[in-house]
Amino acid sequence: MIEWIEIHYKLLAGIIVPIIVAIIGIFKFSTLIKKNNQIKGNNNQQIAESDISQSFNKIEQKDGKSNVAITGNNNQVSNFDMQAIQILAQTYNTSMYPHAERAFEKFHLNSNKFLERLNSQLEGLSQLELDNFSESDVQMALREAIKGAGRTESSQVHDVLAKLVADRVQKTKCSIVELTLNEAIEVASKLDENLIKILAFSFLFSRTKYRTILNEDVLFLNLSKVAHTFKEIDATISKFEYLEALSCGKITQFQTLEIVENIFNQYPQLFLKEISEQALSTLNISSVIKNICFLENENGLFKLNPDVGLYLFEDIPLTVNGSPYKIEDNVVKENIKAITQNNRLTIDEVRVLLNSISSFDNIINTWDKNGFNLFSLTAVGIAIGRAYLEQKELGNYDINIWIK
User: Fold this and answer.
1) Which one, of 171, 172, 169, lies nearest residue 145 by Cα?
2) What is d(CA 333, CA 351) in angstroms, rounded to the nearest whole number?
3) What confidence score (pLDDT) does residue 56 get?
4) Is the whole-model pTM more than 0.90?
5) Are 33 and 71 in contact (CB under 8 A)?
6) Please, what sign has the CA dihedral across residues 337, 339, 344, 347?
7) What is the 3-state secondary structure (H, E, C) of the chain?
8) Which residues, 6 or more positions from 181, have their beta carbon under 8 angstroms from its beta carbon?
9) Residues 6+ apart with CB under 8 A from 34
10) What percent of the chain is modeled with pLDDT above 70?
11) What is the DSSP letter of 275?
12) What is the dihedral of CA 116, 118, 121, 124, to 10 degrees?
């Protein structure tokens, strides 16, 4: 019995209780009318019974003053009240209650599905991290997540909420990251999958990039996955305004770069042209550094070693013959970076390459023509968008990089 009440407490509190209160109120009101009539009847005994049957209201003259006295048998009001209550109860039983019951059954089912997904997210956590569920603010965040998950059957929304809760229990109490995740959980429960995808899409091309891309083929493989995931995204100004109202982002007056320019700038180690022997000779570097940094093709032209590209532009450690290697001379490093950047494809040439990716033309149009270049994410929007990308296996992103 207690379990049934817990499951249906919203139903009881939101529908049944107000009806009971209304019934009690009607009876109380009817009682007051009866008492009022009794008092007025005592004060107006001089009015004849024949007059009562003819009119409800009779003006009586006393000492030159007129008094209005409501007289008569008003007990018919109680009969009307009973009829109204019966109609109200019948209407609720035949129409409202079955729908409400089914709605809360769906809520309970959706909540259980979310908890199943949350359990899988928590499997890899330590006992110390799981103990954070004893904190009141974590429990409140979990409660918000359950409420939000109960509203929708979307497995994607459930996954995002589960990821945010799992992230929350791993963060230090009262840190800005913890506060942001608390807010992100509450806000995510008010979003559908499309709105979450808008945040993820914006985050992917404005706030982050793939750091370990060795060559164009690897980049295009990742972008093809992105194109497939976001090919049906629906972005409008109204949706951006709704996300702004929920503090997920801000609509600005300044346009950012087009998506092709973003990609071009995000990966300086890519889209490089081949360099001649004569051009390399201007670097005045040793043959050892030259052989490590540049790979010669069969035409006698050179291209930057992909591993060196990550070392120069992404600060990823470089290994040569199994041992760590560094270019100690910073001037040499900067000169190598400069010669590669002076030998890159043009934006238009890169656009042609990107358009060869299946469905990527839709991505370009979505970004450039639907307001993404006017939308700037907040910390809450970053947390939600990043959680979606990780659930779709489109990269791993340390939230502490953006929220500190």
Assistant:
1) 169
2) 29
3) 40
4) no
5) no
6) positive
7) CHHHHHHCHHHHHHHHHHHHHHHHHHHHHHHHHHHHHHHHHHHCCCCCHHHHHHCCEEEEEECCEEEEEECCCCCHHHHHHHHHHHHHHHHHHHHHHHHHHHHHHHHHHHHHHHHHHHHHHHCCCCHHHHHHHHCHHHHHHHHHHHHHHHCCCCHHHHHHHHHHHHHHCCCCCCCHHHHHHHHHHHHHCCCCHHHHHHHHHHHHHHCCCCCCCCCHHHHHHHHHHHHHHCCCCCCCHHHHHHHHHCCCEEECCCCCCCHHHHHHHHCCCCCECCECHHHHHCCCCCHHHHHHHEEECCCCCEEECHHHHHHHHHCCCEEECCEEECCCCHHHHHHHHHHHHCCECCHHHHHHHHHCCCCHHHHHHHHHHCCHHHEEECHHHHHHHHHHHHHCCCCCCCHHHCCC
8) 141, 164, 167, 168, 171, 383, 399
9) 74, 75, 78
10) 76
11) B
12) -90
Dihedral sign computed on CA atoms, order 217, 219, 222, 223? negative
Enter the tokens of residue 353.
């390459």
State the chain's mean pLDDT as an integer: 81
Side-chain-side CA neighbours of 175 within 13 Å: the count stands at 14
Q: What is the pLDDT of residue 31?
A: 54
Q: What is the C-alpha to C-alpha distance for residues 31 and 75, in angstroms, rounded to an integer? A: 10
What's the pLDDT score for residue 97? 64
Do residues 382 and 203 lie in contact, with contact meaning Cβ atoms separated by under 8 Å?
yes
At 70 the pLDDT is 41
